[in-house]
Specification:
It is a single chain. 40% of the residues lie in helices and 14% in strands. By secondary structure, it is α/β, with parallel strands linked by helices. The chain has a single domain, classed as NADP-dependent oxidoreductase domain (TIM Barrel, Alpha-Beta Barrel). β8, α6 and β9 (186-190) form a beta-alpha-beta unit. It is globular. The two termini are 34 Å apart.
Length: 296
């Protein structure tokens, strides 16, 4: 099944499977089993983060799966508490140690830190060093808004390969999509089916129950989740759905048997509410969100 998932080529020539398996909010004790299952059914791109507290379990799953290391695209993120040049170099050691690998395929900054953008820049410069040293194959960012990208690009030399941001039918972030495209940065969608949410009081119901999505799912003999993942793929995005349920893990990978028309893609685009589920990127501060990332 995995060979039918399209690959995307990053701006430095590195390729990644367009669909990855995400472990955000997956408890460590469930991460090994779920990730082994994802690898068994054909995922070859795993997305984790230092702040998720489950990098060690992802590494264990990779070893237990029997899938050769060079066949799996491993992606993780540096948390804001480890920003700064030397601290970020050490963050690589912590993540690589927990994952049990020598090389990380994609290492990204988890958030911009607008109140200490100097530390954000230093952290990214450390990623550039890791890239030059061959310790990572690609570098990028996550949750960066257009103004954050502009500031970063003005002070660094390597254009991020990826910007991982919240994108789903109820929150498309067209300005971010456009900024990424302008700079040749791949948009990677977290919460791609709107399932992982921090929805506070936005009044959102689930995208999985949306009448438009349900109608398209019925028309194509697909599930609502498959329709949304197909929407991402056809618009050129990477997406990292998460589930710990074996049937859904497999279902989310099985999205190549149908095609959405231009009208159908536009109908999904039109569901955008402009309401963010995750934290406001400009509200990220060390005081509020800082937490120590344990040693390997």
């Amino acid at each position: 099944m995995a060979d039918t998932i399209p690959t995307l080529t990053l701006n430095n020539g590195v390729e990644l499977p367009a669909l990855g398996y995400g472990v955000f909010q997956t408890p460590p004790d469930e991460t090994v089993t779920a990730t082994v299952e994802a690898l068994r059914v054909g995922y070859r791109h795993i997305d984790t983060a230092a702040a998720y507290g489950n990098e060690r379990e992802v590494g264990e799953a990779l070893r237990r799966s029997g899938v050769p290391r060079d066949e799996v695209f491993l992606e993780t993120k540096v948390w804001i508490s480890d920003y700064g040049y030397d601290a970020t170099l050490h963050a690589f050691d912590k993540s690589a140690g927990k994952l049990g690998v020598d090389t990380i395929d994609l290492l990204i900054l988890h958030q911009a830190l607008p109140s200490r953008f100097d530390l954000t820049v230093e952290a990214y410069q450390a990623l550039e060093t890791l890239l030059a040293d061959g310790k990572v194959r690609a570098i990028g960012v996550s949750n960066f808004m257009p103004e954050h990208l502009d500031r970063l690009l003005a002070e660094t030399s390597v254009v991020p390969a990826v910007n991982q941001v919240e994108v789903h039918p109820y929150f498309r972030q067209p300005d971010v999509l456009a900024a990424n495209a302008k700079h040749g940065i791949l948009t990677q969608a977290w919460s791609p089916i709107g399932g992982i949410t921090f929805y506070r009081d936005t009044g959102h119901t689930s995208t999985l129950q949306d009448p438009t999505i349900l109608r398209l799912a019925e028309a194509h003999g697909a599930t609502p989740a498959q329709v949304m993942l197909r929407w991402h793929l056809q618009q050129g995005r990477s997406a990292i759905p998460k589930s710990v349920t074996p049937s859904r893990i497999a279902e989310n990978l099985d999205v190549t048997g149908f095609e959405l028309s231009a009208e159908e893609l536009a109908a999904i685009d039109a569901l955008d509410t402009g309401r963010r589920g995750g934290p406001e990127p400009d509200a990220i501060t060390l005081e509020t969100f800082g937490r120590e990332i344990p040693e390997a």
